[in-house]
Amino acid sequence: MNPLKSAFGVTSGKFLGFIVHHRGIEIDLSKIDIIQKMPEPRNVSELKSFQGHLAYIWRFISNLAGTCQPFSRLLKKDTPFEWDESCRNAFNNIKAYLKKPPVLVAPIVDRPLLLYIAAQEKSAGALLSQYDENNKERSLYYLSRTLRAIKGQALANFLADHPVPAEWELTEGFPNEKIFLVQVLPPWEMYFDGAARRSGVGTGVLFISPNKDLLPYSFVLTQNCSNNEAEYQAILLGLRIAVEMKLPQLNIYCDSALVIKQLTGEFEVKKVELEPFWRHAGELLAQIPEASLHYVPRSENGPADALAGITASLALFDQRPCQVPICKRWVIPPPVKEETEEDEIEETEESLPILASQN
């Protein structure tokens, strides 16, 4: 049993950077305090830092994409950084909102859900809520997206062509219901490990499908590096594979507490050489709809132990042999670029190819 992920006889606690208690899930006050103490950005780097802190808690903020819209033009290439009144108002509105952030709760079975949709010229937002046992409306999930010109016009045209009559009444009944059973498959799992030795540096990645099929990979890194860099190389290679596979859900496990807690925001990245890998991992994680990171001690992590020395084949669990491709690779994170209107903190659409040579 992992003592960091288990607790008994407590009414609340911190889990993956959030506060979990009987009322629901809320933001850790220390993360809010960091944002509240941040001064107004003076350049693009400081603005990106501010947006980076918001990216971790975006699901708690109503219409974040619309609120941050004034910042978009400042992130365009070859645009002078001019912090005007609209930017100042957006900055202050976010801070004011975080003075009393919402508490998100889990949905209650057999109770109707309420969906609120708000469409603006350049953004769209939604709120999913539900009434609790005390007939009090509670927030379940916030979602917001920035619309590109084509998407925004298409949405505006659709709403104009399909107005909802004011006399319409909402109904909880749906005719011709034919769905009797919905099977929810468990998420994919990914284990990764990196090992740096005098003889060379290697990484291994193991995917486990919902049907418990094993997809192992082993990589020989073409550059010498530290153990921490090897761990980052392993997760970067695994995330790129997951993005190419278009996995909707992924649980990620590793025995490197440093890498996991840096990516969840619990640890700061203090070493300069790790920062590009940390940033690129965040970009790849944003391309997976539901991804979670979990620290697993090496003593309880059989797959990671096996992957540390993986070569041409791998035997796990019931000792079934399986062939493993050996590839030579080295991930070069993309340079920091000026964001455009399409590059938003909630959504990353860029997918970089992997160059590999098979042995």
Please tell me about this protein's structure.
- By secondary structure, the protein is of the alpha+beta class.
- The protein is globular, with a radius of gyration of 23 Å.
- β2 (18-21) and β3 form a beta hairpin.
- The protein is built from 10 helices and 15 strands.
- Helices cover 28% and strands 25% of the residues.
- The strands form 4 sheets. The protein has a 7-stranded mixed β-sheet, with helices on both faces.
Question: Could you name the key traits of this structure?
Answer:
359 residues, alpha+beta, three-stranded antiparallel beta sheet, 10 helices, 28% helix, 25% strand, globular, disordered C terminus
Task: Describe the protein's topology.
Blueprint: E1 12-15, E2 18-21, E3 24-27, H1 29-36, H2 44-56, H3 64-67, H4 69-72, H5 85-98, E4 114-119, E5 123-131, E6 137-146, H6 149-161, E7 188-197, E8 200-208, E9 214-221, H7 227-245, E10 249-254, H8 257-263, H9 275-285, E11 290-295, H10 302-308, E12 313-316, E13 320-323, E14 326-329, E15 357-358
Helix pairs in contact: 7-9
Kindly summarize this structure in a few lines.
The chain has 359 residues and is an alpha+beta fold. It has helices at residues 29-36, 44-56, 64-67, 69-72, 85-98, 149-161, 227-245, 257-263, 275-285, 302-308, and strands spanning 12-15, 18-21, 24-27, 114-119, 123-131, 137-146, 188-197, 200-208, 214-221, 249-254, 290-295, 313-316, 320-323, 326-329, 357-358. One of its GO terms (molecular function) is RNA-DNA hybrid ribonuclease activity.
